[in-house]
Description:
Blueprint: H1 2-25, E1 31-35, E2 41-45, E3 50-55, E4 61-66, H2 71-118
Parallel strand pairs: 1-3
Antiparallel strand pairs: 1-2, 3-4
Amino acid sequence: MRFSFVLLLAVLGCFLLAQESGAATGTTTTVAATTTVASTATTTVAPSTATTTVASSTSDTTTASSSSSGSNSAAARRRRRRRRLARQRQRRERQRQRQTQRLRNRIQNQRRVINELRG
């Protein structure tokens, strides 16, 4: 029972590692593993849903299914791009406001000098 539990944890760890690497690249990753107490293990990677099944000598069976389409990473890229573009717009707007203020100050100083010379 301990052997099958440790084996189950190892298979699930491999499954999570494969799922994370698939999400990082935007691909679909599937890991299907079947393990018995007789130390027979089969791991298959195919582009569909992921299934992990572990059977022990007491006929305990556990099944977990998951699918990673990579859409989360695409959505994250879109969010990062939108934020970057928003920061660029804000930066340009601040630069434009500073330039406008500098021109106003310059005009004000020129008027003051003109009024002093007239004065």
